[in-house]
Amino acid sequence: MRVLAIESSCDESAAAVLDSDRGLLAHELFSQIELHRVFGGVVPELASRDHVRRLLPLVRNVLESSGTAPRGLAGVAYTAGPGLIGALLTGAALARSLAYAWRVPAIGIHHLEGHLLAPLLEADPPPFPHVALLVSGGHTLLIEAREIGRYELLGETRDDAAGEAFDKTAKLLGLPYPGGPQLARLAGSGRAGAFTFPRPMLDRPGLEFSFSGLKTAVLHAVRAREMSDGVKADVACAVQEAIVETLAVKALRALEQTGLDVLVVSGGVSANQRLRARLAEVVRHRGARVYYPRTEFCTDNAAMIAVAGLARLASGQHDGLAPSGLAPSGLAHTASAHGGLPIEARAQWPLQTLPPLA
Ligand SMILES: Nc1ncnc2c1ncn2[C@@H]1O[C@H](COP(=O)(O)OP(=O)(O)OP(=O)(O)O)[C@@H](O)[C@H]1O
Ligand SMILES: [Mg+2]
């Protein structure tokens, strides 16, 4: 089985071709970072318009470089949510139109299921069941993943996501957008212990997170003194330590609570080297193992959407030509071309409501 996948949930346009026997045959990505940099964050309308420009050439490229003809496809997978609704609709409209023209099924994929399954693309994929720590720009979740499609939420953030905490504190330090990787780089030259920021919710039981207080703590530290490059690096180091330590303690707690010995970490923040080093210590101590996606598949990409798409198509799931399972919620945005081809996407979409594989 071979699947074409399209990702357009935020500020990356991406396409990929995955084959069940031969693996990942092609993947391409266009990042809109330059487009949004002057605004200091993603401008949704600009993101949607740029996806319209970028997606079709990316699809052409991956089909060509993988030697794939449309008749060789078992289906077209696309990110149906959660994300920016206009951006999602561009990918959904393209995917469903191509599938309709090629007479193959389309399947709307949950973006976070894509992140969760990205490590399955590696040579040594993680086994199920496992504890998944999903740390991205919009989400911080601890999940018990029993198998593909069966996800139980163990804990999540009450406010900012871990990636958002990196980005917002980086902004306070005057680092350019997107700040997470920049802050991580600066932290490398900071002195550990020069500042200490709160590690919220570590002192109480449970698997919830809260990162919004970190912004205030950093703001006070920045306002209180002259910010030389050295002091900025010290602050960056302390921010990274606060986030990393919080994630590590809660991940360990989730392993203990579930009795599982496999931890899978994905999403943009899983690229963070300090987090990887700290989690290596934690799992070694417990006799557990930790798995990651390769660095380029930590952040948004279409290869991970292809993994989820292939699994779901192989189990017989697809959108169909009638409004699919996405439709009943009032949160679903639907556009119907000539009354016949429903195009659906969801800005919000709880992961636990996904159907299991057949
Ligand atoms: N090395 C790093 N250290 C810390 N944070 C990082 C690093 N690399 C990327 N990030 C952060 O990862 C986030 C982007 O990740 P990702 O693309 O998975 O998120 P998203 O798609 O915007 O959010 P979501 O998947 O929740 O919708 C940003 O917040 C970015 O700052
Ligand atoms: Mg993402």
Provide the fold topology.
Blueprint: E1 2-7, E2 12-19, E3 23-31, H1 33-37, H2 44-65, E4 75-81, H3 85-102, E5 106-110, H4 111-117, E6 130-135, E7 140-147, E8 150-156, H5 162-172, H6 179-187, H7 212-223, H8 229-258, E9 262-266, H9 273-286, E10 289-291, H10 303-314, E11 332-337, E12 341-346
Parallel strand pairs: 1-4, 4-5, 6-9, 9-10
Antiparallel strand pairs: 1-2, 2-3, 6-7, 7-8, 11-12
Largest β sheet strand count, sense and barrel closure: 5 strands, mixed
Proportion in β-strands: 15-25%
Strand order of the largest sheet: 3-2-1-4-5
The number of strands is 12
Structural commentary:
It is a single chain. The protein is an alpha/beta fold. The protein has ten helices and twelve strands. The chain has helices at residues 33-37, 44-65, 85-102, 111-117, 162-172, 179-187, 212-223, 229-258, 273-286, 303-314, and strands at 2-7, 12-19, 23-31, 75-81, 106-110, 130-135, 140-147, 150-156, 262-266, 289-291, 332-337, 341-346. The strands form three sheets. The chain has a five-stranded mixed beta sheet, with helices on both faces. Helix 5 (162-172) crosses helix 6 (179-187). It is globular and about 65 Å long. Residues 322-331 have low confidence and may be disordered. The protein binds adenosine-5'-triphosphate and magnesium ion. Magnesium ion binds at residues 111, 115, 136, 300.
